[in-house]
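Worked problem 6 (solution included).
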Amino acid sequence: MKFPVLYLRKGAERRLRAGHLWVYSNEVDTVRSPLTGFEAGCQAELRSSLDKPLGTVFVNPQTLICARLISRDPSHGMTPQRLSQRLEIALSLRERLFSEPFYRWVFGDSDGLSGLVIDRFGDLVVIQISTAGMETLKETIGRAVQKLVRPSAIVFKNDGKMRVVENLETYTETFAGTEPDVLTVRENGVSFEVPLAGGQKTGWFYDHRMNRQRLQSYAPGKRVLDVFSYVGGWGIQAAYAGAAQVTCVDCSAKALDAVHHNANLNRLTNVDTLEGDAFDALKALCDEKEKFDIVVLDPPALIPRRRDQKAGEQAYARLNQLALRLLERDGLLVSASCSMHLSQSALVDIIRASGRKIDRFVQLLEQGHQAPDHPIVPGIPETDYIKSCFVRSLTGFF
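Solution. The predicted structure is:
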């Protein structure tokens, strides 16, 4: 198939040759290949300044990331057959990893499908498209998913903020079957029901599943505080594992209603909730001299952009200091981050500094990462974003 050609500036191919898949608009030779000559979502052949073929890409001339690599073979575009093959390869990994169909089936660039996320919730599949290139294949994606797993329902939940960046309309629609009101999730032996409409992302965050599983081993008999709880992913699993008492904190009343619902779903009577801003709630608990055996911090991305680095790191530091103050003399802090711009080592250093500031001796027991249904591509640092630290805090040790 003959594609239009997108040329790069001199030297701009270095990052691609190192393993990345994105092209930025300032890397394009707009004299040889004006971006205005490409339609949003079209496929093109990518060439270096020396006219060497680099592969095929999806193009969106209106965005900072103006091209995303499809294949390193310049003659291979994204056909229905290639799309289906990549979906099948991604599916084979998840089916090896998990005994039940509750996982992230497709994780965008990590599965060679930039701009596409697919989550499975038993017999329901939720799809999110965030790029113009993938939007052109919407029907093809729906049909391929239907053929591969034959779910009872397929829902396109295309309401993410990245669609605005790509100049795409936001919408939610049912491709097949009947859209349910709630998602059913099973994770680490625990059941959840989550509202589909208005929920976060596809409705659930599978990325911390292994870290939540590790929490279960620490929870029996402990008093646990789950901050930024959403619908109780961490807290309900701690309660299920035998925690003496769990308190979930979130600013959303609807999310906390779901916490109570999920506690009842699992026949748990040891879960309560606290509505409010996390910083304010933690400070109030400190003022009231409350103490917990375990505090879990899993905030939203506090460093969404690189320019937010300083303010975001300060916010992480305030959270960790407040959480450490709330721990018993020998307590456990589980400090997590989904900010791609915050490295694992930076999070550890924030915890170290927080411990010193309030005179706590801290021991790093475990470090966690994202679950394997969110594979990391070493050449694409953006695919490596989840981190967690399990930290023992001791008072009066030195």
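Discussion: Residues 80-180 form a domain with the Transcription Regulator spoIIAA fold (CATH 3.30.750.80).
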